[in-house]
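ARCHIVE CARD
Drawer: 12
Card no.: 0347
Subject: one protein chain, sequence and derived structure
Cross-reference: see card 0346
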Amino acid sequence: MKQTVQSRSAVEALRIDVRNLGKIFDLPVGSLEAVRNVSFSARRGEFVALLGPSGSGKSTVLNMVATLISPTTGSILIDGVPVRPGKAVPHVGYVFQRDTLFPWRTVGDNIGYGLDLRGIRGAERELRVRAAIEQAGLKGFTDNYPSTLSGGMRQRVSLMRTLIVEPEILLMDEPFGALDTHTKIDMHEVLLRLWDRSQQTVLFVTHDLGEALTLADRIILFSARPGGIKDMFEVDLPRPRDPVRVRETARFGELYQRIWHSLGEEFIKGRGT
């Protein structure tokens, strides 16, 4: 009986379960195998980084989990229920590589967009938007338009527009990849602070090993195309994490060196694909 209870608890703790996933794109000049036989899971409240060189299928896998792309083979379960391509899962949020802000909407109205879609208006909407703006360090910019903001501030708005509807699962596709190092680390601090509070299950795509180590509980390393899982690494750095100070620790350096050797091999392979 004890083993049965433990097994049931382990299953219930799984939020994302990817099984033997594969994707082949049909192109005018033939076909391209982007992903081959990818299997992994993410537990409740776990921050998982999908790491690998460009073209290794990380974003393709993320987009299949998000139901934006249909898999060629395999299956994806969220909370034990198979996802259906093209049918959004209500409690899943997505943050894209580039911000997708509406230029004609102010910061406040961009952040509140998801609430508008859910029919949340009036005092509750105002209260939640104000809280999101303060949490993201955007106080004083409520009435600004995106064109007046820096890249980092635009990404804060984009992040809060997703988080304000309180998704239980957060999918992030290299959201800080276009930012300079200083701004990126600043965004790491914002994300870690918000995640420490809400503990969503996160799948975070990146090709930046330092970023993966700063943010994640576990790193899934993808091989060069066709993307498959080469290895997985537990990130045993204590939380809460300061994105600057954690990089100065001996353990960060040890993990970086260990993972970099394997990642570097895939960078070299990727040059030839």
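Annotation on reverse: The two ends are 51 Å apart (CA to CA). Residues 1-8 have pLDDT under 50 and may be disordered.
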